[in-house]
Structures are given as structure tokens and as C-alpha cells.
Amino acid sequence: MSSTADSFKAAFRHHPSGVAVITLDSTTGPVALTASSVFSVSAEPPMLVFSVAKMASASQPLHESSDIVVHLISVDQIDLAKLCAQRGADRFAGDVWTWSRYETGEPFFDAPAVRLRCRVTERVEAGASTLIVGEVLDIYISDDADAQAPLVYHDREWHRLDDGSVL
Amino acid sequence: MSSTADSFKAAFRHHPSGVAVITLDSTTGPVALTASSVFSVSAEPPMLVFSVAKMASASQPLHESSDIVVHLISVDQIDLAKLCAQRGADRFAGDVWTWSRYETGEPFFDAPAVRLRCRVTERVEAGASTLIVGEVLDIYISDDADAQAPLVYHDREWHRLDDGSVL
């Protein structure tokens, strides 16, 4: 069939993804978004990419600031992923999901077991979204990262990977 | 910790992904690669992105040809994904994984339930890889696509999503 927005969305409902939360500063304070569109591009130099919809509230800050933090999200932080995907929610109220700042200033959430501080090196306009390419400057992996179950987003549902899902 | 290739790889071992197989023509016939780095970028116009390592055999063809097919892979086609990830294997011997061509010429595998014929609109060099941005021209979704279990790649293992993994 020819490609329409509907058939395109139907096709990608068959494509699972990992989940990430991205934080950065804006002119009005820290902002955060949830992305199911993050992948590693290159290990040497370490680079990653994700996309942000132009209509997302984080789009403009991502065009203005190059200092970002990418958190890889496990099942334990599913509610953080939902919070940062929710339009208009205050992600930094700090009552449940506490946050801190790097010495270099970038805001980050304390809970996720893996996070990567990045410098945006390229922005590529692509249809209704922008591809953000980042070089990774600093990596944090908590001691209990391996004990956390990976989270997968698929067709508007969330899944846990564990011994029961392995092939 | 500071970012090294090793810590970067360790970080992304915590990031699951869907699986895709990409086919296209080269000067020596059809080529195929498996990618765990595909995501949808924009629904209107329909666009997707993936990355290919510069040292991959499909890298040069992807710089020379703009007509590609992206197959989204289910558990039923796990062996096709493994075949297309295997260095030096003949992906198009056709003894198990039969293939065809669109009227417009692009080679594709018959088995996957979802495939998207694309025109490459942009190539972005990023470290040791190239980001390939494609506009989707044509979409195929088989009648039994919903019945096929989604496949996830995570930390060098393969997982199946089903009712048992849903949260």
C-alpha cells in the first residue's frame, strides 16, 4: 500500500524500543522528555542519536542548549518515563523523582541506573522532527544496574525483559 | 566516569531495541544488513532513520544507492536477522529466506510481516557510523502481522514480547 501517516504508524507499532529520558536546561529552568528513539551510533568516538518532535515542548530548548543528559530507563523507573511523557506535568517537583546537577550544571534524575552526559554536535531537520546527535562526555552506571530489569515500549504497552522473555 | 568505548558499550547494554533487516542493491547484486538502530522520525511525511557502521560491508552500497527496503523483524524471522548480521554469509541464496523485487527493482525478503520501501534523503556522518535518513514511499503489512511476536535485542540476547512480558 502507499505510505500514509496511518499506515506508517501501524507499521511501527510492530517495532519495539528501549526507553530513555533526556534532561537539559532551558531559559525557564530544567526540562525533560521521554524518548523511545535513542540508539548508539558510534563507540569511538562515543555518539548517540535520538529524535524530538518539533511540536514537543523540549524541541526549542534542544535547539538552544547543547548540554544534555540521556538516562536509559529500567522497569524501576517506568513512572518517571510516564511523567516525562506527560504534557504539562512538572517533572522536577522532586517529591518522588529527585534530581541533581553535574558540576558542569546539567540537570539529571538520580534514580536511573545509567546516564550519559552529552554535547549535541548536530541537529538534522527530518520532517516533523529533529534528529539530535550527541557526543558522550561522561557516563554513569550504578553498581546495581545489572540487577534492574530492562524496560521496552511497544504498541502503547510497556514490557519487562527477564529470563522468561529470553529466547 | 569519563566516557570510553568500553564504558559506552557497557551503558548501551542496558538499552534494548527492536530489530530490522535492510536490503538494497549494490554494484555486485543485492546486499542486506541487520540493524538494531531503526526508529521512526516523523509520520508526516513518513520518515525513519538507522545507522550503519562505516566498516560494515553494506556501508558503501548505502552511500551509492538511495533505494532501500526496511523490514521490521518478528520472532519468526530471528534466523534471518542472524543471517544478515553474519559476516560473509550469502543472504540471498534463497534456500530458506526467499526474496523478490518490487516493480521498481528493490530487493526484499518475503517473510517479514512489515516492510517499508524508502528513498534515502540524507546521510549524516557520525563518528564511526553513518546515519541514514529515509522517506517512506510504500508500506507492506501482512494480514498476520499482529499474530507475530515482536523480537527484541538486548545485551547480546534475543527476547520475545508477549502477554508474559507486558507490565
From TrEMBL, chains A, B:
<dbReference type="InterPro" id="IPR012349">
    <property type="entry name" value="Split_barrel_FMN-bd"/>
</dbReference>
<dbReference type="GO" id="GO:0042602">
    <property type="term" value="F:riboflavin reductase (NADPH) activity"/>
</dbReference>
<protein>
    <submittedName>
        <fullName>Unannotated protein</fullName>
    </submittedName>
</protein>
<dbReference type="GO" id="GO:0010181">
    <property type="term" value="F:FMN binding"/>
</dbReference>
<dbReference type="Pfam" id="PF01613">
    <property type="entry name" value="Flavin_Reduct"/>
</dbReference>
<feature type="domain" description="Flavin reductase like">
    <location>
        <begin position="12"/>
        <end position="160"/>
    </location>
</feature>
<dbReference type="InterPro" id="IPR002563">
    <property type="entry name" value="Flavin_Rdtase-like_dom"/>
</dbReference>
<keyword id="KW-0560">Oxidoreductase</keyword>
<dbReference type="InterPro" id="IPR050268">
    <property type="entry name" value="NADH-dep_flavin_reductase"/>
</dbReference>
